[in-house]
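mind reviewing these tokens:
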Amino acid sequence: MVDDGNCGKIVNMITAKELEHLAKLSRIKLTENDRESLVKEFDSILGYIDKLKKVNVLLDTSLRVGALRNVVKPDIVSGTNSEDRERLLREVPDREGDFIAVKKMIAQEGIDFKI
């Protein structure tokens, strides 16, 4: 039950009819005592959730455990000279200019990917 802000009037957040519907969907038989106590418990839980909705919390999620972060390695060629590069490219079975040619591995409706 929650105070609706109008002269202390108490409003149920879940009705007995809604609780019956939930019980029917979950195939649970409830006694009258169960209904009364569950309506109170649901009201308490939903009231707490309503309070949580009103809390303004700003968190830096990038520092949390398990937070996803995109790590990008710079695409820098190092430690090779043009002679080494050419020697390596001469060894590949198929070549297109300064690149190694490979068979098409993935095709997607008008977009071709080479891997």
Notes: The radius of gyration is 32 Å.
